[in-house]
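User: Hello, can you help with two protein structures?

Assistant: Certainly.
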Amino acid sequence: MKFSGAYPNPAINVVYVDYSIPEPINNTSIVITNMLGLKVKEVNLGDRSGKARIAVTDLINGIYFYSLVADDQLLLTRKFIVRR
C-alpha cells in the first residue's frame, strides 16, 4: 500500500496525494477533517492506484487531516496545511 504525503504542503488551491491500494480492498476514499475532527470533505477513489487531486479552495486557512479509509476501516492519517 502507498499513501504519500500531501503536496504541495502548504496548499493554496489544490493538494495531491499519490496512492496504491492492494487487492482485495474495494471501497476506498480520502476523508479530510478539520482540527475539531469534523469531516469537511470526502473524495472517493475509483482506481486502485493513481494521484488524487483534491481542491481546497473551499477550506479556510488552517491544519487539516486526511485519512485513507478502505472498506469502512481507517488505515492511515496524515496532515496538511491550507495557507493563502
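That covers the first. Now for the second protein you mentioned:
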Amino acid sequence: MTFAEKVIFVRSELLLTQSQLANELSVSQVTIARWESKKRKPQLIQESKFNKFCEKHNINFEKAVK
C-alpha cells in the first residue's frame, strides 16, 4: 500500500476531511491533497506523526488490503 493509499484509507476510516487530518498532523490541507495525489511524499517527521496518529487510532492497514 502506498503512502497516498494509507492517507486516503485513514481519512475514510475516521471520516475525516483533508482539513481535519491536516490539523491533526500540523500540516496544511494542500499538503494532504498532494500526498493523496502522489504529487509529494511526506518528510520523515511528517510520516512519523502520521504513523503515530494511526497507532493512536488503531488503524489496521491489513484490513484495507483485503
